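DUF4913 domain-containing protein
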Amino acid sequence: MDNEIFEGNAEASTEPTSAQERLDAAQQALADAEQAVTRAREKAGEDLSDWLRAAATESLAQADRDRSQREIELQLAAAEVAASVEKASPVVAEPASKAGEGEGAPASDPGQEGPALMFATSEQFLHHQLLPLYIRIIDSRNNTWCQQWFRHPEALSRVDALWRAWEHLRLDGKLGSSVWWKDHADPHMAVLLSQKGPFHECDLERHKDPTPIPCQTAPEGWFVEEGGIPFP
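Tokens:
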């Protein structure tokens, strides 16, 4: 009987061993990914030309995506080890006084905050990522641009939207880049660079404050507020 118990414990202990190996491999992969991010960040911080800096920034984004994937794999491997150990260990019932502690409290989520932003502001994104990649002819016959773009509310909103979409989609190593170009960069930049767009009264040499489209205020009571009665 003692031999049966010994054999049973030995059989149970083999399962956590393979899970532990996967955990060790995941930890090493994450460490390698961290080093790759550090190297890419150092390269992106060097004194480079605009297009080389944009390429280095893209490499950093890829390294950051790889690190995020390794973090997920590490979490899965750690959970697998914990499950294997729990399966091999005898179940010990908790005292009734502790069983209800923390009921209803949300579990902590270490990944809730998400990865750090690549750029601190939309202006940094514009100067170091968007414009170095988005090369277009700017003249009186093709496209227009205002160097004081930040004085145009529409441009501010669109560049901010482009930045936030890029920060989110860069983490998708498969379709993120394509989706950002097709669904975000091209439509927004087409409007910003259009000679009928927000910079239509500006050029590379001068800025003119935008004039809002004229609009009159409707008579009082014309629009019914939410929850109001539409008819007298």
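Residues 1-16, 91-112 have pLDDT under 50 and may be disordered.
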